[in-house]
Amino acid sequence: MSLAEEVLRLKDARNAVLLAHNYQRPEVQDVADFVGDSLYLSRKAMESDRAVIVFAGVRFMAETAKILNPARTVLLPDLKAGCGLSDSITAEQLRAWKAEHPGAAVVAYINTSAEVKAESDYCCTSSNAIKVVEQIPPDQEILFLPDMFLGDYVRRRTGRSMHLWVGDCPVHAKLRPEVLAHARADHPGAPLIAHPECGCASQVLPYVDRVLSTDGMLRFAEETRAPEVLVATEVGILHRMHKLNPTTRFSPIDSGAICPYMKEISLEDVRDSLAELRYEIDVPQDVADRARRALERMVAA
Ligand code: 13P
Ligand code: SF4
After folding, report:
1. Among protein residues, the one whose CA lies closest to atom 1 of ligand 2
2. pTM for this prediction
């Protein structure tokens, strides 16, 4: 039996659903029940009636699944699958920041720990950050964390003045305006799509046709008739782009844009996770209860 067949058999035996993020290894994406961006996968986790949710993604995604659907067993196949961006703010740092801005609304990107979400009023993902910020009363101060590039982009798009936490994603921060400008010059006529975590997302706008979440990029990929598209995000997304649209060439802006956290999870890890029910992700009840309101606002937006 192949490894992929073993995973499929164990998935049935455990009554499990396998969720995979768009940056996962191709062989993991290919055996998943659902592949998508953070918002889509959070909704799928919340709706799941399976006994077990295996999250082929990173830790904050598995924690989100547990908070939104606490009755299920949530597994992360490798505990090293963290997130450099989520590590850039702790709950203690957030409490100190809030103390400097009493009454401010706190908007946390989903790429944060459960403890940080528990200190927040709203959560958002890259696909609904603008919608979430637009819900906040116009006279209320806003603290946006932890990605300053996404925050700056949302600030420009909504016209809201927001305080930004100075954090970034180590993979996307390197995709700066000059890198995008070079790619554009080397591939004249090819549309360029970029994730809002890219370095200076608002300053790359002159070089970019669309700023999109990973699922937004996939929809663009499926619909485009352009012979070539330039892609500014983690390269794991190219697997589904090729599958959705085999006639367009999808060229990464930087073929070294690889998230080491996402790549921690191998197909073997997924098999072992299902076979041994490891590694179970739990969130202390008081933290989960405080984080749930912000997450429910995110999935509803
Ligand atoms: P998406 O929600 O757009 O998939 O982004 C998640 C992420 O971690 C990007 O680095
Ligand atoms: Fe975190 Fe960046 Fe990896 Fe996304 S790509 S999981 S933000 S380190």
Report:
1. 83
2. 0.96
What is the number of the ligand 2 atom nearest to the C-alpha of 169?
A: 2
Within a domain: 297: no
Q: What residue numbers bound the domain in which 239 lies?
A: 172-252
**Does residue 139 sit within a domain?**
yes
Residues with CB under 6 A from ligand 2: 58, 83-85, 111, 169-172, 197, 234, 259, 261-262
Residue 294 maps to a domain = no
Q: What mean pLDDT is predicted for residues 36-52?
A: 98
Among 32, 27, 38, 82, which residue's Cα sits nearest to residue 53?
A: 32
Q: Please name which ligand lies nearest the alpha carbon of 235.
A: 2
**Do residue 165 and residue 227 come from a single domain?**
no
In a domain, 232, yes or no: yes
200: domain CATH number is: 3.40.50.10800
User: Is pLDDT at 104 greater than 80 in this prediction?
Assistant: yes
Give me ligand 2 centre to Cα 255, in Å. Answer: 16
Beta bridge partners, 74, equal 53
> Which residues make beta-bridge pairs with 53?
17, 74
Helix (H) or strand (E) holding 52, with range, is strand 52-56
State in Å: Cα 57 to ligand 1 middle.
10
Residue range 60-83: mean pLDDT, rounded: 98
Q: Above 90 in pLDDT, residue 162?
A: yes
Q: Work out how many domains the chain is built from and give that number.
A: 3
At 201, the pLDDT band (50, 70, 90 cuts) reads low
Distance of alpha carbon 23 from alpha carbon 18, whole angstroms: 15
